[in-house]
Amino acid sequence: MNGFLQMVARDLRLALRQRADAGMVVLFFVLTAALFPFGVGPEANLLARIAPGVIWVTALLAVLLSLERLFLADYEDGALELLALSPLPLEAIVLAKALAHWLTTGLPLVLAAPLLALLYNMDPAGLPALILAMVLGTPSLSLIGAIGAALALGARRGGVLIPLLVLPLNVPVLIFGVGAIDATLAGLDAKPHLLFLGALFLAALVTAPLAAAAALRQAIE
Questions:
Q1: 212-215 contacts at long range (C-beta below 8 A, 24 or more positions apart)
Q2: What does the domain layout of the chain look like in residue ranges?
Q3: Mean pLDDT across the stretch 85-109?
């Protein structure tokens, strides 16, 4: 556990040294969401209706923006090989990196999402469902993204390959994330959607470190 926490702290320190990268993700999230009203018009009811989908789609795109650097720096400077030889299992290293990625990328998106929802004139009654759905869903985006980042490691066009690998796997998270908010706004129970998001998170928590670690071993070899 100490090694795992040290790995998380290491990645957080590296992220703090490159604060511009994390800030760019949040800025991309806000600016991309802010562009939609220019395309669909300023009609308040329409904006409120599309708000859940816009927020989730832009959050997914913002997460994709930061995935390439998840393992790339350690791979290029040889640190990944040393980490693979450390007593900490490679699966735990993947999980630590995914956690650090969520803390520096996913968590800021969760905090910014309610502000965008209010900007879109979404009913405040849907904000708890929005926050809870993003808290359950964004960690899955980081975990699934770790698989894509590991598979694309060493590829010539890794930045282009990662979205092609990750986007299809993230569609269920997107569907149930938007569904939870829509159900709340319609006066229905959002619990089934949230339970599916929780199940997806648990499935990713178990399978993503194993799959990403296998891909990293292949890349190192």
A1: 212/91, 212/94, 212/146, 212/147, 212/149, 212/150, 213/89, 213/90, 213/91, 213/93, 213/94, 213/150, 215/147, 215/150, 215/151, 215/153
A2: 2-220
A3: 88
